[in-house]
Amino acid sequence: MNTDTITIIVAIQGVGLALWRAIASIRQDVTALRQEVRADIAVLNSRIDTLDARFTSRIDALYQALFSHKDSAA
Questions:
Q1: Which of 8, 37, 60, 68 has the fewest CB atoms below 10 angstroms from its CB?
Q2: Using CA atoms, how far apart are residues 30 and 24, in angstroms rounded to an integer?
Q3: What is the C-alpha to C-alpha distance for residues 6 and 22, in angstroms, rounded to an integer?
């Protein structure tokens, strides 16, 4: 084999290995970001549930305050 051919083959393998490692690194980064986003969404859902419960409680209290009084004319 010609030395130029061997050099080209080794260079192609080196580039392939470098690309493979870069892709693996990017996959790890994407996986970590996905986990962070899921955790953030879980926190936001919890916060929304808390606010929803508080809002519902206040609406219920307002409803009770408005409609629980007996009409003295009746």
A1: 68
A2: 10
A3: 24
Q: Which residue has the tokens 């970001």?
A: 33
Residue 11 dihedral angles phi and psi, to the nearest 5°? -65, -40
Q: Which of 39, 17, 40, 36 is nearest to 28 (CA)?
A: 36
pLDDT digit string, tens, across residues 22-49: 999 999 999 999 999 999 999 999 999 9
Q: Which two tokens stand for residue 21?
A: 């490692």
Spatial CA neighbour of 9 closest among 24, 1, 42, 67 = 1
At 74 the pLDDT is 56
